[in-house]
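User: Can you predict the 3D structure for this chain?
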Amino acid sequence: MTEKIEYKGYTIKVELDEDNESPREWDNAGKMVCFHNNYNLGDKHDFYNAADFMEWLEENEKDLIYLPLYLYDHSGISMSTSTGYPFNCPWDSGQVGFIYLDRETMLKEWGYKNITKKRREFIENILRGEVAIYDQYLTGEIYGYIVEDEEGEHLDSCWGFYDKEYMISEAESAIDYKHKNTYHQMKLIPA
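Assistant: Here is the predicted structure, written as structure tokens:
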């Protein structure tokens, strides 16, 4: 899939980035614990099975904020914290685990000793955001760009964008920078 965008006489080629690392390798606040027979999902953990994790979850529930994780597996996989369609399909979806944040991390990252309703909503939104980014990784919605001049010469490229619109603005900024420097160089050349 290549999308071409013309900008100030240059061509921006938008492509899917097929060579990227899992966002679960980044510095995430939440811990994603998944159990699936066919896929290695989420973060590495020491739980033997889902029953072990559920027992641990019940013992530590007062010190955690957590959300369920649902997987849709049909011609590719997708993950969500919501049970809306297609994550409620009885044949191709189901709960695959949880994402959680413990009290120790909340204290270290934000100084939260007590969990108010507002703080809980804030943490749950962070966890949803981590799952949304991971879903983009699972579904292959990560982008890169190549900038070419009128002759098709490669001028710039960058990869690993999770936000397509932001990536396009970065490509346009690279062109603007090139354009500006070319103009300034032309003014410095004596006639």
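The longest strand covers residues 64-73. The radius of gyration is 22 Å.
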